[in-house]
Specification:
four-stranded antiparallel sheet, alpha/beta
Amino acid sequence: MNKSKAKDDNYLPDYISFFEGAKSDDKIVGRLLKSLLKANKASFILSTLLFIVKHCAVWIIPIVTANVINIATNPSKNPVSGLFINGAVLILLVVQNLFTHVLYSNYSCRALRNIGVGLKNSLIKKLQQLSITFHTEMKTGALQSKFLRDTEAIEQFLHQIIFSLVPCIITVFVTVGVTVSKSLIVTAFFAVIIPVNVFVVRMFRKKMRNNNRAFRKEVENVSGQITTMLEMIPITKAHGLEDTEISKMETSLKHMKSAGLMLDHSQAQFGSWAWVVGNFMSAVCLVFTGYMAYVGKLTVGDVVLFQSYFNTITANIQALLNIYPEFAKGAESIKSVSEIMLSDNIENNSGKIRLRYVHGTVRFNNVSYRYPGTEKDVIKHFSLDAEPGDCVAFVGASGSGKSTVMNMIIGFLRATSGSITIDGKPIEMLNLQDYRHFLAVVPQNSILFSGTIKENIVYGLAKYSEKRFNEVIKLANIDEFTDKLPDGINTMVEEHGGNLSGGQKQRISIARALMRDPRIIILDEATSALDNISEYHVQQAMSSLIKGRTTFIVAHRLSTIRDANKIVVMENGECVETGTYDELMKKHGKFYELKTLSELNSGN
């Protein structure tokens, strides 16, 4: 890591490389932890040293206590000054904690915060790299759960390592070291503690791991269903299906509750066994050291010292046992995040052709496509030539393959066989990110974010001229409705554009496309959900958008594509007719049939 960047509080680390090379989630836990700790080793080493300094008072208190008891119980052999010396040392060690603890916490927390935002930053970058197929298959709610819940669990996991595991290990080593210097017999007795506690962990490790995984899956499932439920609320209420949705969610919540209770039960059993074993061993230690003092092998002060140290060791091992469930949860969260980070379903633009300009020549040569895991082609032997400035319209029934062809032009889907070229270059050889800078997509359902109308239009543009912006506003007929709004073009757009009509949202989408000055445009049934008045305004905006650009239109209302250079009629993934509007109407073929049905349905 660059040291100058690490010192900058605004620097966000990127940990994508830490996941690379791991072939399975079984190895990713240790690999990731090692990499994260190594990347922040300076902070962690310094925080560990500060912990030793600030915590030394806790280790020395039993020694001072033993010394004071021995001096007080045998005054003839010990001068009174020994009491004051021990007291002064202890006070000095206690007071220094005021400063060292703050420094220890600052360095540790800075590293942990760095890791937390670094993981989230890495997830965001990876999600942007993953293909549209991955995002289609992965539920939004599950992604949100991984991004929020699992990254927090990993951060908490590391928090436990820094603030619990490392201090516990250091404390055990220090106390055992002092015990070895005092009595090998007592040390041997202490050594029995560790294997007994390890046995307790092994008893419950597999059960807690499985229960953590089951609970995590249920949480992701509920998160995904909640996302779907919120999106479906208008339809649910329109059809009076509230009780149906409640019932579905209650079933999922019951499953999540059951999985959570199973996890809680296993953790409770583990905690109970750990507590009983620890306190049982402490009682045995007290009797053992008391007997050693009784037979003259130890002093009274040493009994207090060893009992304090034994309780310290037991308490620290107990702490390790108690945080083991958090370790199991953190390990499971690392595996959960790895489902995204280890995915190779990405758009790899490395070494691809960087386009400086796109003219707009698009050719399909005998292209077929089938979705992964299926055996049936959804596009079959499709060929098409589109020259710069052409307007090509696609018509056909739902499921005929129109949107699939559009996704192949965008580069979301790659042909199973055949070839697609852009300006004579195979699309799979292009840097798709560069290529899409010359592309604009206006979908059927406009996608707007919470912000002003202007921010939605200039989305993604670091630089633009106000002159061009004002031209686009007029071309897209945006001013027809923004002039009537109190804040005009700076009116805030509610979530999903809830305060705008369908036509207004579509015109904003078209204005966004115009601002990019694209060479290739895809209009995916952009007017299908609009009323006649809204369609009129959108059609005017669309005519400005497509002028001089290669345009592909998925048409719902066939009357809107009368001026297309070429109409492609799709059926079952195949092109069954091509031609101009007039040519196809004269043929009295499939297009004529679709047009007739369209007019009958519209009442024309």
